[in-house]
Design brief:
Blueprint lengths: L2 H17 L4 H4 L3 H11 L4 H14 L3 H6 L2 H8 L6 H17 L7 H5 L6 H12 L8 H10 L9 H12 L11
């Protein structure tokens, strides 16, 4: 870890440890729970997701339970969160995980990325938070912080900006253990 990165990362981790919100998906950060929370949190506020997440986990406590569910039941529990393709993708991905991986989410970034509805950020979040792999989970918030720290005014929507941010903070960590948030 470079000196600059270390000077940024350590205070951020300390800040997180001292003041993070108590969220149900953080209490038990197993891959399935991380995955469901990340999909639910897409384009949705944290406070809106809490109740949905708790109900979801009661109905579908693991990948196999979700895969075995009827789509109508899945959509009923999703009702009110919007963007129903997220629920359909979760359901289909759970079925694929059962078919391909025996009901266990793969501890592999590329395999996660290949699941329906899973993009780079979600694959990174599941890999790093759920499996403890050193894989970046770079979203708009990370890019905004990095841009401010680097005094870089390139729009965060620029693909090159995301690549630079990911490489700057994670390029020298490939393959090492990550610090779970």
């Amino acid at each position: 870890m470079s000196g600059v990165t270390k000077a940024i990362v350590e205070p951020l981790l300390q800040w997180y440890d001292e003041g993070h919100r108590d969220l149900p998906w953080r209490r038990e950060p197993v891959p399935y729970r991380v995955w469901v929370s990340e999909i639910m949190l897409q384009q949705t506020r944290v406070e809106a997701v809490r109740g949905y997440y708790e109900r979801w986990m009661q109905a579908f406590p693991d990948v196999r339970a979700l895969a075995a569910a009827d789509e109508a039941q899945v959509l009923k529990l999703w009702e009110g969160l919007g963007y129903y393709s997220r629920a359909r993708n979760l359901h289909r991905a759970a079925q694929l995980v059962c078919e391909r991986y025996g009901g266990t989410l793969p501890a592999d970034y590329e395999a996660l990325l290949a699941l329906p509805g899973v993009g780079e950020y979600t694959a990174g979040a599941v890999a790093s938070i759920g499996f403890g792999l050193c894989v970046p989970a770079v979203d708009g918030n990370v890019m905004r912080v990095a841009a401010r720290l680097n005094d870089d005014f390139t729009p965060i929507t620029d693909a090159k900006q995301k690549k630079r941010t990911t490489g700057h903070f994670f390029g020298d960590h490939a393959g090492g253990p990550s610090r779970r948030l």
